[in-house]
Amino acid sequence: MANMQQNFKMDKYNQIILSELKKNARISNAELADVIGLSPSACLRRVQDLESKGVIAGYRVVMNEKLLGNGFTAYVAVGLKSHSKSSQLAFEKAVSGATEVKECHNVTGPFEYLLRVETSDIDAFKVFHTDVLGSIPQVNTISTHVVMESAKDERL
After folding, report:
1. Domains 9-52 and 72-146 share a fold
2. Distance separating alpha carbons of residues 105 and 77, to the nearest angstrom
3. Could you give the 3-state DSSP secondary structure of residue 76?
4. Edge to edge, what strands does the sheet with 101-106 contain?
5. What is the DSSP string of 28-48?
6. pLDDT digit string (tens) for 111-156?
7. d(CA 52, CA 49)
8. Sequence ranges of the domains in the chain
9. Looking at domain 72-146, which CATH architecture does it have?
């Protein structure tokens, strides 16, 4: 990580490139070059440099989960029975196979994990809560926060 920071230079062109790619990763190199005021070849070199240094970690498709039938979102705080590394690894392995879990973060505070869970509806969430989370032996506490509306979501 320190090596990347030494070799990476954040200048105004790189800032604009990253800002534009964050808004639209499908922008063509010619359009991007036009926006930032560089030649297409210079722009491409900069993008490739940002990729090779790991600043741009990848590109992905963001799907509209509501249109795909996942209209229910909840953030679930999970406390474990034990704070051991083996307990954490076992929990992470158990939730990694659950398609409903879209994000799993090990966090600080009164619980160990924060999950973003998406299901079709509350009934499907109840099944997930009982059959998946409820069956993981390392789980001690579960606290669910249902998303009613999102005023800001940069994933979309």
Report:
1. no
2. 10
3. strand
4. 101-106, 113-119, 72-80, 139-146
5. -HHHHHHHHTS-HHHHHHHHH
6. 999 999 999 999 999 999 999 999 999 999 999 999 999 898 887 6
7. 5
8. 9-52, 72-146
9. 2-Layer Sandwich (3.30)
As a 3-state breakdown, the chain gives helix, strand, coil percent values, each rounded to 5, of: 40, 20, 40
Tell me, what amino acid is at 19? S
What does the alpha-carbon distance between residue 33 and residue 63 come to, in Å, rounded to a whole number? 27
Residue in the structure block whose two tokens are 């229910």: 72
| Residues whose CB is less than 8 angstroms from the CB of residue 77 and which lie 6 or more positions away in sequence, other chains included | 110, 111, 113, 114, 115, 141, 142, 143, 144, 145
Contact 151, 116 (CB under 8 A): no
One-letter identity of residue 96 = S
Reported as a pLDDT band with limits 50, 70 and 90, residue 4 is very low
CATH number assigned to the domain with residue range 9-52, chosen from the 4 options 3.40.630.10, 2.30.30.60, 1.10.10.10, 1.20.1440.230: 1.10.10.10
Mean pLDDT along residues 87-98: 97
Q: Are strands 72-80 and 113-119 parallel, antiparallel or unpaired?
A: antiparallel
